[in-house]
Amino acid sequence: MVRTIGRVAAIGTLFIASLTVTPTTGAWAASACSSPQEKTFSLPGKPDVWVGAEMCIYTRGSGNNQKTAMLSINWSGSFLAGKRFDKFVAEVRVERNDTVYANEQCNWTSDLNNISDSEGQMWDCLAYYSSSLNGGWTADGRIIYNINNDGKGDYVWNLTGSPRVAIAPDGTETLVPSTEVSSIEEAPDDPTS
Length: 193
Fold this sequence. Notes:
four-stranded antiparallel β-sheet, single chain
């Protein structure tokens, strides 16, 4: 999923409290997001590329059974014709107590290499899982990348996962108290439903 939100970041500094903007449909019972994370990629013979990333977990549905992990990125960097990356793949996981329940990969290599007007767009990679188990759900992920012409092969940028969604005293899922909690009240569409 790609959302245009305008340029929201500057090289080296993240000026927003949260990268995630209002997703498309459906009310969330609970959600939690990591603090924004950022990385500047030094590219041989080309302008550097800055990437901001955020991990969020959402629950919704009857008994909060639908779990959605979302990795969102945006980027900034001057466009120069030619290949920037040999690989730029996002991986997002739905986890419960550090056990992986669902995993999805999104290949954004051609987006970062070929589309000069995509700067400032928000890209989302989503993984879905249905479970009646409550508590301990998080989103986690990483970006696997290979910088063109650096001669070093693949790198892995392990992202900090979201805070956990926990069980409230009444038995419902709720947010773990944290300053990192998202105020998002809607969920992205589940293409599998």
